Amino acid sequence: MNVNRALFDEVMVPNYAPPAVIPVKGKGSRVWDQEGREYIDFAGGIAVNCLGHCHPALVQALQAQSEQLWHLANVMTNEPALRLARKLTDATFAERVYFANSGTEANEAALKLARRYAFNEFGEAKNGIIAFERSFHGRTLFAVTVGGQKAYSDGFGPKPGAIHHAIYNDLASLEALISDTTCAVIIEPVQGEGGIIEADPTFIKGVRELCDKHNALLIFDEVQTGVGRTGHLYAYMDCGVTPDILTSAKALGGGFPVAAMLTTTAIAKHLSVGTHGSTYGGNPLACAVAEATFDTVNDPALLDGVRQRHQRFRDGLNRINETYGIFRDIRGKGLLIGAELQPALAGRAKEILQAATREGLMCLVAGPDVVRLAPSLVIPDADIDEGLLRFERAVASVFASAAQSA
Ligand SMILES: *Cc1c(COP(=O)(O)O)cnc(C)c1O
Q1: Distances (CA, A) of 142 to 157, 179, 358
Q2: Whose CA is nearest to atom 10 of ligand 1?
């Protein structure tokens, strides 16, 4: 069979638009395509491959578990899931864990739990959910409607109701919307898809206070920021604010699909037997890989390394910007980094991504104006430096063609 990009157009639903290259192998922060061309990976599978590709500890965990037990119905529990849950609860505010398979599903569970908690504790009228504009919470109809980009949920109606959107980093806009009928506020501590925007420390504290005042649960969507990405195990640990429910996915499995919703005993009890579930959630293979990922990432030396690498990226991007002056802002936390284009170059982040692919570098965008980097948390300095060289060549090629077309 001829497996190439043309086959995509023949057999796949056209909801993605991949480039011509088809990666076939990865090791650490390097990836190779069908032609044997090498790429440096600053994308990390969108903040998923937190230990790069085929990390030995993860390969070992997957191989060992694959010879033990792959799957059980959820009428039984299993050792990897229980071990992972114990480690997650030991390391965080949470006392209880629910496993799912994707960020969307973890958020779906969090939002359903918030509704059920309010229903049981306060009655049916307390059902309002407040999220923030430009937020992203996934793609089920509930999660995508909660997300702050209407364009993603339009055309799929009727939409779930009682969902409202405040403005990120604008406490007054939340204050105007929140009331005693609000059951939950859901927020990303750093907006990922929305453009790598950090919550202001006073804003996030204010959000917590407003939730407390109105008996609304505070849900932190840490699907992108969790598991070391920001240089902390979870971003909330550096916010001075503890959520009631936290969702984790992406980096949790280091590339194996797994997600978790974390909460307290008092809240968790409202998801009683039969109220919610998932066929694959808590799958032994997934939990075994996640356990190895978690053991590796939950290490002060590794997390310190993330913060050091942040500075190396920032210095490199600043140097490139001194030459080309194309970015108005370079920002982010840990190894979740955004570089926003100058207004004159608005909408052209995708061109830089495409040029980077041609130069042998995988990177990301976050919206039309922001180039996003989310590399492995253990990417070697040499790969950072070589990747930044390739990034500079990509910037130079776009900048040159911009000059020509001007
Ligand atoms: C990626 C992402 C999701 C959705 O996760 P999936 O695994 O794609 O379902 C939800 N929330 C945030 C903040 C994300 O970055």
Answers
A1: 11, 21, 37
A2: 137
